[in-house]
Amino acid sequence: MKPKNPLSQVSDYDLRLLRLFKTVVECGSFSAAESVLGITRSAVSLQMADLEKRLGMRLCQRGRAGFALTDEGREVLRASEVLLTAVENFRSEVNQINRQLKGELNIGIVNNLVTLPYMRITHALKKLREQSDEVRINISMSTPGEIERRLFDGRLHIGVIPLDLPLSGLEYNVLYTERSSLYCSHEHLFFGPAESLDVGQLKSVDAVAPSDRMNSDVVNLHQLLNCTATASDREGIAFMILTGSYIGFLPDHYAANWVDKGQMKALLPQQLFFESRLATATRKGQRTNLIVETLQRFL
């Protein structure tokens, strides 16, 4: 598959194929990428084969064993993300010069914020859309650590994360405060009357802790627990609590649905809680972006 000559130039068609390749990887298979790309699986396969021929290397394995990137495919994916980000940054700069609200907004949001009652992010995105129908909004839900990494490498324009341990390379704008309490499920032995529970008993049962970094106040609260499991995000913590075998901290707005159904309850909520400031985050020194500026005005 090696070409006679190295890749001499990158055309618009090459960029389109690289975007297709990136989408296939994000979806995890050709068939899963069909609906996202709006083309048939056979068309996806043909275009992937064309890209591999143009680059002179096998990018992925596909077949009964499933979809998997080759070593070359992982390197091409990394280079593609850098290239496509640079192309989008160029377009944003040109539109900034022309003061046109046009292009992509890549925003990373910490998991499970949609249940917050304030809805400031939702309203801001709605207002942005009303300003221009030529803005493509790409939302990724992730952990705070992953959002920070993507802000630093340029894959995200803006993030929404807890402002627990601010990083010097990011700029923050506080949106609101989120309260988290300690919860158990209705199948847990602590689900009984509140007056029968005291803090000293917490060590007698298993607890789940977040695997992301925590500030000192949150660390101190978790030291009251017997943390025998970790979860990468809030949804993972909720899964563990709902097994009936673990207790753990969840944002009150996120736990409210299970509380209303009688499936969860807060344990000693006047004592065992912490508050986190939620903020937008952008990379210090990043190029001016009219779309991000407009979104921040609405927040």
From TrEMBL:
CDD domains: PBP2_LTTR_substrate. The keyword DNA-binding applies. Keywords: DNA-binding, Transcription, Transcription regulation. Residues 13-70 form the HTH lysR-type domain. PROSITE patterns: HTH_LYSR. SUPFAM superfamilies: Periplasmic binding protein-like II, Winged helix' DNA-binding domain. Pfam families: HTH_1, LysR_substrate. InterPro entries: LysR_HTH_N (IPR000847), LysR_subst-bd (IPR005119), WH-like_DNA-bd_sf (IPR036388), WH_DNA-bd_sf (IPR036390). It comes from the Bacteria. GO terms for molecular function: DNA-binding transcription factor activity; transcription cis-regulatory region binding. The keyword Acyltransferase does not apply. Belongs to the LysR transcriptional regulatory family. PANTHER family: HTH-TYPE TRANSCRIPTIONAL ACTIVATOR BAUR, HTH-TYPE TRANSCRIPTIONAL REGULATOR. This is Transcriptional regulator. The lineage of its organism: Bacteria, Pseudomonadati, Pseudomonadota, Gammaproteobacteria, Oceanospirillales.
